[in-house]
Amino acid sequence: MQFKDIVGQTDIANRITATIDSGRVSHAQLILGDERDGSLQIAWAYMQYLCCEHRQHYDGGALRADSCGECPSCKKISQLMHPDLHFLFPNPPNGSTSVSAEDYMGDFYDFMKKSRALGTLHDFNESLSGDVKTSLIRELDAAHLVEVLNMKPYEGGWRMVVVWKPSHMKREASNELLKTLEEPLPQTLILMVDDSDEQLLPTIRSRVQTLRIKAGVGPRADEANPEYAALLVGWLRMLFKLKMKELSGQVDKIASLNREQLKRFLLYAEKVMRDCFLNSAAGIACSIGSGDEKFDAQFPKMITVNNIELIEAAFDDALFAIERNAYAKIALMELSFCMSKALKKR
After folding, report:
1. Where in the chain are the domains?
2. How do strand 159-164 and strand 188-194 relate by DSSP bridges?
3. Class for the domain spanning 221-343
4. CATH for 3-212 (1.10.260.40, 3.40.1260.10, 3.40.50.300, 1.20.1560.10)
5. CB-hemisphere CA count at 13 Å for 283?
6. Cβ(251)–Cβ(329) below 8 Å
7. Cβ(45)–Cβ(9) under 8 Å?
8. Bridge-based pairing state of the strands 209-212 and 28-32
């Protein structure tokens, strides 16, 4: 996996390559963001760049550097065959207390390759006919990983671990990994990947450096969700009228979604805003599906270079608040006021 293959994450890729080039790699990091936006892809590309023998640096273009994709290390990591690259991930118990991630490693590698690391935990469990509710990272998994990390690297370089969905780690497993996080071995990198850090033990969260990826840039089935489209259009209409009673009523409808649905709605809405800006800037007709031809024709023109960054920042703040279990209506009303101000700056 190379950074150039990941959609919409150039900024974080540039931060990562600059950090690696400077030799200031933190031993424990958390890549925070939805898999469909490339969080697991970022971890994969991170490891490949870290071990690349002929890193490529570019003078022009958005991407500052990338792995070569051709050296022996790149080829091994791209095929998930590097002996010093290890994965820890939730796995179903399958009726046995002794089952571990090792028993599903081949399935996980197949899942990674087929989905190009864009699949969700639900997708992975479906491929195993497993239940996401019972998929966990257990103490046995963590103990095996600690044992592996204490061995000498096969190729004399980095020991690398990707912990996917640490939010599904049992407390005993978290405690097993704590000592490794507190007293890291030389040339050891542990990358945790999740869409939320709320379920992590505070002792783990305080020991990792967090890298938050850009939200809403990956492909989503939710884009075609008619309920989200109707809620978005209704909300946008109220923003123009700025009648508090009607706006509050529309916000109540959106706030009635559960937390995961609300996060998806916000990601969907932010992507619509970005598409309006990109299409309008390119002179391409763009419809937000309101059913009102005049509204569809006029609204995209209101998202311009003068306000797109303000709008994206407002949505990112709202997402962050929802992830932190903030009161949904307050977060949505704050988003509404920020959007109203931004639209006036077109």
Report:
1. 3-212, 221-343
2. parallel
3. mainly alpha
4. 3.40.50.300
5. 0
6. yes
7. no
8. parallel
Quote the pLDDT of residue 292: 67
Q: How many residues does the chain have?
A: 346
% of the chain beyond a pLDDT of 70: 91
Name the more confident of 338 and 284. Answer: 338
Q: Which residues of 26-51 are buried (b: 16+ CB within 10 A; e: fewer)?
A: ebbbbbbbbbbbbbbbbbbbbbbbbb
Task: Check for a shared fold between 3-212 and 221-343.
Answer: no
AA identity, residue 139: E
Angstrom CA distances, 145 to 110, 138, 148, 222, 274, stand at 20, 11, 5, 36, 41
d(CA 165, CA 185) in angstroms, rounded, equals: 23
**Half-sphere exposure of 157 toward its Cβ, with a 13 Å CA cutoff?**
15
Tokens for 292?
A: 């009102």
Beta strands 159-164 and 85-88, pairing class: parallel
CA dihedral 156, 161, 162, 168 (to 10 degrees): 170
Longest dimension (CA), the chain: 66
The owner of tokens 């390759």 is 113
